[in-house]
């Protein structure tokens, strides 16, 4: 599964790199005076305004998580659609466990291996012996609450993406006010001042479109997939607490998957040995 | 049914062609210096920025599917509203099969003919003998999950349609900064520079309005019709698993159709022979 | 009821005419050179781009229906809130019919008079003798499916209303590029070129605000009222299949009406004779 | 309660007046040539376009109601959150009535006093003796239908608020086209023409922000509170038809109120005499 | 817990201060004529228009609460996610109380300590002995009604945030009209006038982005967390009225918490003594 992760990252990196290369190529083709695209004032106003707005609008914790999301933009999601098959397999194995050793067997087997807090909580509910309806109800609350907590950084990033062009305009207006009050008929100085003023708008759009919005979209998808996976796991845990057969579990959980990728217990059992090392 | 497809495509192609002809006619009428509408820098910035943003915001798989959707914009949907009648007919035939040979008969008859994964999954559920409620629940999950997977390229295209005008503005700002810093009082050179700068905005709007948005809208409709059809098929499979009569199936499934196109079993039975070859 | 239709149309036509008169008055007051508001290029680009986008985004059928909606903008809705009273009366008459002659009586009486496909379908369901719950379920599916089909032209018109100002801007940019590349210091020619270029933006806004959006809003309301009416009729058909008394039907269906317009069976029975000819 | 109404109106009027005073003060401080802010053409195009669009988009009835809403913007809502306590008291009194004289007693007592059509309808349902579930179902339909009818003018006003700036731009474009075609190098005439053209945009924004949107927001809140009150009254009528005790009614209806304003039957009974005249 | 509050405020204040410092640094670096950023007219129009619109759109009460929200922007929420653990502990203590002394014991113990009106109302419902379903239903209504009341100031602030840039544009248009009518060929006076006119737009954007929107976002989160907490408390009260065991209460209420912060009754009981003073 390792090389899938890599090839995916490669496509993402290649596409991103290609896009940036086109933009830079256009600028290099158009001018050789690169310093004319640098405006300290513009940068300070766009960056400062966006940061100030973020810290005033959200708790500092979420803002820090948003910055981290920018950093980890290229990282792959913990729960990918590809990984859902493995999740189903694990749940079916647990179903066999429950059939052979009962619920306490489940506790002993998985208690030490599972690190993920939400999953631990769910298994605890099953092992405690709560009724399937109660398990489903508690897990649904937990999944939704986890989702709500997880997407606050997305809100922060979307907020920054709508703030930074506004401060781009603030920077341009500040630059134009300074420039207009120094007019003394010198046309080339007007042009120079206007060019510097426009750079703030340029920075604002680029900050929004190449940093904040992509990070927000990427994180949103990651959390959407995670929620989807959590609902599938919830369904599986409910089936466990109902002591359903592994076959039924396979058919029910397959409804979450792309029909082309449906988990097939029979095929799996045939090639069981070489994959036994999968956790 | 073939010529319906064609006539539909013809109307679409004719309308599209007519629209483009008007735009080109206007430009040809206005100038004969067509090169003045070409700006390599503008194109590189708009295209590069849109592509980079797409690859940074979504997994590369979805981006590729979005590009394919642009390519196949004119193609007809797999499930058209016109085709729903044929679907109902097929389901009713299966109902007869179930009445005469029982559920195993259904398996033998359709097992080899049906290629579509979702439908295969649904029939398997019915043949396995799950209760109607379980069939409905699993199929609903499967239909919604399929829909969620299918519309990711729509999200990518809508994202590109909002990104490309933004990079059109980036290109124009870059062009204006370059132009403004070379001002030396020569009015006609300013005009030339401004004209080139404005082309990036022009490209950005056209990319969004004539390529990304139409492809997104077309794909969205295709997937909406597909989901509608999948819910109708789900209803039909539930009726099959309830072993309802073909008459009842006709009345219930007709509620999904335009009342003017309602499937009429009696009329169908009269002219059965010539259409027997329909799969 | 005829003169209500007319008076309503008169208010609409008068308001529309008054608004247009103010706009034209302003233009006539401001200039006598009306030709300066004509730009063939601008018109071709706005109209061509909007049409091309519509045909690329939607199936040609819906686009044609959208154009028809523009044409019929002033026409009155088939189902007006005023007409709901007459619908209730008709349903109550059917309730008397069912009480006196049973369900077959309903079939004989209304089978020939009812042209509307959805209503025919609903009555067929009642006459076939389906249980009230089944009738409600099938009719709800049918009403929602009909609504979905009906509002596609609204989507097309809203799409056109957002496309036409974009192509107005395209036209203005094209005009400005042409103008800027022909600058030779002649200030009045620049002004002339700019004026022509701006006309495309003007056309784009007017096409959106005085044609596409009003047609979309009008059609949307028409279909919303129709859906509301269809749900009321569904409720009435369910009551028929439950063989409820006409009194109960009156009270239940009145919940859909403005309390001031509640249908009153007693008052109706008093003045029954002169209105007997109402179908 | 009268002086609450007044003090509220006073705060609203004072705030509004204060805001307008600041705007006018700024203009008076900036110029003494007030005629330069008058443009007949601009006003005609903005007002005419907005009116024409409204009459084309909505039935004339709703447009007239929207104009009335502008007029009555300052008026207080029929059902205020403050008045909900009195509503609960009234419902509890009716509960005593039903306990002492039965449902017919309710009819005799309130039949003549209640003018409001929706409430009359609800009481009629209770007095007729329908089951609580039926009462709730009918009243819910009636409340939602009333709400739908009531907010159409809000839609009209929001539509006008988005139309008027668009026609402000139309007016500015018309003014600029006229001005640009009369350029003859006279710089001050260009400035004058541009100033007049910009006035249309100014009018469009002010019409939207100081007239249409405030009227829409005010009306929306009024209708939201009314719906909230209607659901509370529905709950009360259902409790009446369930013949619940006044205590239970108090506890259940209090859930709709701000906990700090909860109705307390005991306190009310203590000071019953001086308030007996409340209807 | 005190220092958590402080450290959180410190991060917020630091981030905000840092952002503002960057903006001011940019201005100081760009000019030393700070008076050129002051425009009394611009300020009066933006502030006056925004205030007038707010008072016309909403009742004066909500507008005052909105102004208070601006003032208290940095204050910490009453119910933080961190505080939810303490809430659960309190509910579990009450469960012990109910087990040992019955519902009246709950009344005596908590009747005097609880100041919060919503919680008092909920406990009264439990003590009165209403069935769990009734308690849940009433509390849900109360929580939603409280939420609706609480977020009106958020609506006011969002309204102000969309109004103030519009009046920024009004101020700029007014300034440009005044300037354009005084043109007499003096280029530097035009520049000066334009600079002053642009300041209104600058003020409008800053008022929206650094005052209104952050205050709205902060208040919205505060109320969202409060609602989340209220639903958790509702769940706890329902469990109390069901006389569930403290263990079950722990497991059920934990579903609202981050799995990493789950309340653990056993761990709590171990270190009970030092925390006994917690209320």
Word description of this protein:
5 copies of one chain form a homopentamer. The first copy, chain A, has 279 residues and is mainly alpha-helical. Chain A has 11 helices and no strands. Chain A is elongated and about 90 Å long. Chains C and D meet through helix 1, helix 8 and helix 9 of C and helix 2, helix 3, helix 5, helix 6 and helix 7 of D.
Entry keywords:
homopentamer; 279 residues; mainly alpha; 79% helix; 0% strand; disordered N terminus
Dominant shape of chain A: elongated
Level of helix content of chain A? over 70%
Count of individual beta strands of chain A = 0
- Poorly predicted tracts of residues of chain A: 1-7
Nearest-angstrom radius of gyration of chain A? 27 Å
CA distance, first residue to last residue of chain A: 13 Å
What's the helix-strand series of chain A?
HHHHHHHHHHH
User: How many H/I helical runs of chain A?
Assistant: 11
Largest interface: D-E, 55 and 58 residues
Secondary-structure-derived class of chain A: mainly alpha
Largest sheet of chain A: none
What assembly state would you assign to the polypeptide chains in this entry? homopentamer
Beta content of chain A comes to under 5%
Average of the residue pLDDT scores of chain A = 84
């Amino acid at each position: 599964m390792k090389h899938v992760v890599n090839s995916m990252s490669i496509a993402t990196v290649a596409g991103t790199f290609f896009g940036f290369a086109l933009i830079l190529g256009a600028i290099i083709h158009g001018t050789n005076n690169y310093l004319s695209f640098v405006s300290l004032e513009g940068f300070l106003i766009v960056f400062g305004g966006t940061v100030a707005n973020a810290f005033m609008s959200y708790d500092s914790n979420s803002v820090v998580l948003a910055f981290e999301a920018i950093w980890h933009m290229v990282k792959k999601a913990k729960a990918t659609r590809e990984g859902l098959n493995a999740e189903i397999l694990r749940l079916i194995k647990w179903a066999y466990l429950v059939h052979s050793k009962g619920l306490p067997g489940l506790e002993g087997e998985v208690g030490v291996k599972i690190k993920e807090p939400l999953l631990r909580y769910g298994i605890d509910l099953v092992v405690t012996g709560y009724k399937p309806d109660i398990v489903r109800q508690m897990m649904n609350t937990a999944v939704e609450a986890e989702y709500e907590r997880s997407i606050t950084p997305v809100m922060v990033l979307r907020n920054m993406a709508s703030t930074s062009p506004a401060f781009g305009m603030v920077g341009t207006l500040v630059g134009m006010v300074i420039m207009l009050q120094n007019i003394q008929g010198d046309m080339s100085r007007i042009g120079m001042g206007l060019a510097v003023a426009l750079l703030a708008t340029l920075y604002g759009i680029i900050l929004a479109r190449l940093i904040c919005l992509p990070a927000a979209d990427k994180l949103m998808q990651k959390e959407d997939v995670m929620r989807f996976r959590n609902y599938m796991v919830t369904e599986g845990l409910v089936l466990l607490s109902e002591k359903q057969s592994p076959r039924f579990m396979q058919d029910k959980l397959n409804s979450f998957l792309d029909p082309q990728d449906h988990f097939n217990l029979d095929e799996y059992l045939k090639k069981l040995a070489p994959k036994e090392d999968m956790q």
